[in-house]
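Narrative of accomplishments. A recurring question from our advisory board has been how the design workflow behaves on a single, concrete structure rather than in aggregate. To address it, we present the structure tokens for one chain from the evaluation set, followed by the sequence designed for it. No filtering or post-editing was applied between the two.
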């Protein structure tokens, strides 16, 4: 599928936040963090904006030129930084200070994040709800994974649904041995891709349908 991809910058922030908000509004993990839908609609975009600001400042945001899909990436070095990661606390403080789940989600994912080997971390991938099922996610991730292959870098993500797990497996990702079980909530599936890995059946056309935080 031929699409034009560019690097997003600060000028794109408002549009990308809106895309993330719409794409993840009914995601199982978003529903767990913000169970009340009316409240979720008020704070959800602010919450995801913290992820975006981190990627804009420290990583890379790949954006399909028409703004219908975006992928947020961070490069994780082999050695963990000496200072503690304040992102989970910032997520809660910025979006929903009285909601401990807004911080807990970051603590739980951080606790199982692989260490000791440099890799590319897919923070979020989002496809506009009215464009899902068209293969935009596959088209967006393909060049990034090809770059990982050329540079000999693994890739890592946390899938938020069983369906997205299946789709990522078709792109060469495999489950790690550390599932994330949210208290009284859904499960998340950490997945790792070795450079050059090819999933069975090749890359699926629908790999962009389900966003994965």
């Amino acid at each position: 599928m031929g699409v034009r991809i560019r690097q997003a910058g600060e000028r794109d922030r408002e549009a990308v936040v809106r895309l993330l908000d719409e794409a993840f509004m009914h995601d199982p993990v978003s529903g767990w963090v913000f169970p009340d839908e009316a409240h979720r609609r008020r704070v959800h975009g602010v919450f995801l904006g913290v992820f975006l600001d981190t990627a804009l400042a420290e990583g890379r945001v790949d954006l399909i030129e028409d703004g219908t899909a975006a992928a947020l990436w961070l490069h994780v070095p082999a050695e963990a930084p000496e200072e503690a990661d304040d992102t989970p606390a910032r997520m809660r403080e910025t979006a929903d200070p009285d909601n401990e789940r807004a911080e807990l989600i970051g603590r739980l994912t951080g606790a199982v994040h692989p260490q000791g080997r440099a890799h590319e971390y897919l923070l979020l991938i989002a496809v506009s709800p009215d464009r899902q099922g068209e293969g935009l996610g596959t088209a967006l991730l393909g060049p990034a994974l090809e770059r990982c292959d050329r540079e000999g870098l693994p890739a890592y993500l946390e899938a938020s649904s069983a369906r997205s797990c299946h789709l990522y497996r078709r792109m060469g990702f495999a489950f790690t041995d550390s599932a994330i079980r949210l208290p009284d909530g859904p499960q998340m599936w950490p997945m790792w891709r070795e450079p050059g890995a090819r999933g069975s059946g090749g890359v699926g056309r629908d790999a962009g349908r389900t966003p994965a935080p």
